[in-house]
Amino acid sequence: MAMETLRIGVLNLMHDKEATRRRFTRVLEQPGLPVKLTFFYLVTHYTGRPVPEAVAKIARPLDLELAAQMDGFIITGAPIENLLFDQVEYFAEVCDLIDVLNRARVFQLYVCWGAMVAANYLYGVEKHRLAKKYFGVFENQVVAPDPLLVELEPNFLAPHARYAELGVGPRNGGNGAFK
Questions:
Q1: 6-172 is classed in which CATH architecture?
Q2: Of 111, 139, 145, 147, which sees the most CB atoms within 10 A?
């Protein structure tokens, strides 16, 4: 029996949009894995200026109605973790997207800054700036089986780089201790 094609939206916030698109496509659109990726860009990021031709070629403007029809959605990182959330011009649009995805019960994956904004918006988890950039290749674990993870070992190495980390925020009753 053939598996139904998974429709996955990707909000690509990275500055190197084409390279990021290629990496996600290479991993998720493999032969035998029925996945169709649709890449989006934030409308508010280009308010008052034209969308670069290179971006318009590989992504479409974020459409919340279309996002709600996806089977899954990925919000990538962005090299803006030194900014406070309310300093990010498109913070409200990302939060609107998260609300729509939750109402539509779309499975979600948040990467890097995307994870920080989701943890903050959904659970009140604050980010804290590190004294210096934390980077390296670290062990990660697959905590639940998933068809998209079939090629990964239960413990796998992956690169990490960040200027901030998450800690428990006051909105969810935390005491500010780091996780």
A1: 3-Layer(aba) Sandwich (3.40)
A2: 111
